[in-house]
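To assess whether ligand presence alters the predicted conformation, the chain was also submitted together with hexanoyl-coenzyme A. Input:
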Amino acid sequence: MTALVLNETINKVGLIRINRPEAMNALNADVMAGISAAIDAFEADENIGCIVITGSDKVFAAGADIGAMKDYDYMHAYKTDYITRGWERIKTARKPVIAAVAGYALGGGCEVAMMCDMIFAADNAKFGQPEIRLGTMPGLGGSQRLPRAVSKAKAMDMCLTARMMDAAEAEKAGLVARVYPVDQLLDETLKAAATIASFSLPVVMMVKESVNRAWESSLNESLLFERRLFHSTFALEDQKEGMAAFVEKRKAVFKNR
Ligand code: HXC
């Protein structure tokens, strides 16, 4: 049987590929366990500085597996805490995670992409939260992360009408960081990931943590958090090296400490 999730290490970047083409990469416990295991491994690997999650050229993921969900009753969903254990590993990753989205990212697929630190999209990408058509609603963060990313108005529109947003609109609205032609998406995403992975890993992790604070705390709290993290970078050998290299007009060699 082909693996539902394929992993690869490309220099200092960990690449995770969702691979369930016969079901439009629909997400189930096995797919999510594969993603979680890959993140565990890449987080533990000191050589890895950035993680990329992608699908195929046609689909990132068309949502949670509707065939499996259709027979769940309330007690099953509640008792098993459906889509909780094993489904949110991306959220706790400390290394940056980039979603490279080509084709459909719908329902849980859009939510998984939004769980990542940023989204790079192909020009054929289509984002949507169409759960309402199935008599249900976003459950993996769609109704919470989407308004924060694209405004309440556009999130309401997408969640209530089930319409899809294309890559151009998604970039304009702030959902995606960059858009590339589909045949360049993965290369360009891997290039950006390699750039991130070339920097000091502790600093990369601090930057990620600090930007995330902007979403989660009041401005005064997050400003203080940033200030203290900034101060702590002065304890790093990499800060000494980075600034010395600039003054000496040479390339910095970071040691991740
Ligand atoms: C299970 C799925 C699936 C899904 C597609 N397939 N999406 N199977 N779960 N989410 C299967 C189809 O049944 C079909 O199987 C095969 O993949 C190809 O799909 P088609 O529909 O024939 O392809 P196409 O006409 O190109 O349309 C593509 C599509 C459409 C627009 C992406 O498949 C679609 O609308 N899918 C559902 C999108 C959706 O509603 N997502 C939200 C799910 S709820 P066969 O065997 O017939 O070839 C959700 C809950 C979120 O995500 C909270 C939890 C995470």
